[in-house]
Design goal:
292 residues, alpha+beta, 2 domains, four-stranded antiparallel sheet, 12 helices
């Protein structure tokens, strides 16, 4: 090897990205071994049963169900084309000094690190514990469908509250709300909507007050950032705690995802500790991060 070639080789040995790619290649090789991929001759792409199981799991994580036969064939075919495109791109040198490729390689390493760790199937007890720990995550929220008549503060100023009270009296007496009140971009009626949804339209305080009431009688005036409203709840649906079997798959996916994230963070920290990271921050110190 001449001096120029030897110098390039020495620089590559000192290049952290080369170390990173070498680690990724080693993990990929071990991962392939775990999946029982047979040593394929050059020009041969061999997809093991372990790899197919990974593709099925990826589909399940996104869609919440396993793939059907046609879907499974499609995702395996797509994986084959991705592998072919990758090999061709590397053969053409398209991976050299490319920020996008660096990021993709990092993503691939993250995925491989996750796959290297056996993500145990959650037990029945763990599924039920997760559901008990975060019941609101899996429950159906309370919902309200409302009608409202607005007395706008922009148009009526200090008289808005008094006028809304007058609207309320007429509505309770049986007046038709159609055409009553001030026109605005707000809907005069909403379908069944969660408290968060109502708050998005009218504000948090308005939503909180609305969800204290039952259906039927007009009530108010209820204050919002737009003015004062006479409000009627036309339909309601109270919060529901779903049956365990109805959310089993969602709970399972959440636990597996949490375990994958925890494992990825642990592996990233372990890899970072292999390097002496030196950052030349402007001003000589890193930016201050507010305490959460």
């Amino acid at each position: 090897m001449d001096g120029k070639g030897g110098g390039l080789f020495q620089r590559l040995l000192r290049e952290p990205l080369a170390h990173f790619l070498a680690i990724g290649a080693a993990i990929f090789a071990f991962n392939a071994m775990l999946n029982r991929d047979a040593e394929a001759p050059e020009g041969v792409i061999q997809i093991s049963q372990g790899r197919i199981a990974q593709l099925e799991e990826g589909f399940r994580a996104v869609s919440g169900r396993g793939p059907g036969p046609q879907e499974l064939k499609a995702i395996v075919d797509d994986f084959v084309m991705e592998e072919i495109a990758y090999r061709e791109a590397v053969a053409m040198g398209l991976d050299a000094d490319d920020t996008v490729v660096r990021r993709r390689m990092r993503q691939k390493l993250d995925f491989l690190l996750e796959d290297m760790t056996a993500i145990n199937e959650p037990t029945e007890a763990e599924l039920r514990e997760q559901l008990a720990r975060e019941p609101l995550r899996y429950s159906q929220p309370a919902m309200r469908a409302i009608r409202q008549v607005l007395a706008s503060e922009d148009k009526r100023g200090g008289a808005a509250s008094r006028d809304a009270q007058a609207f309320l009296g007429r509505l309770r007496a049986g007046a038709n709300p159609e055409g009553m009140g001030d026109a605005s971009m707000l809907p005069s009626a909403t379908p069944l909507t969660s408290e968060i949804g109502i708050a998005t339209l009218f504000g948090d305080a308005f939503a909180a007050e609305v969800f204290k009431h039952g259906a039927g009688e007009w009530f108010g005036p209820v204050k919002s950032v737009f003015g004062y409203h006479a409000v009627q709840i036309t339909h309601l649906k109270e919060a529901e705690t779903p049956a365990f079997d109805a959310v089993r798959e969602q709970v399972r996916n959440d636990i597996i995802q949490q375990r994958r994230i925890a494992q990825r963070l642990q592996d990233q920290q372990r890899l970072r500790e292999r390097y002496d990271v030196r950052i030349d921050w402007p001003g000589g110190k890193p930016p201050e991060v507010p305490v959460q």
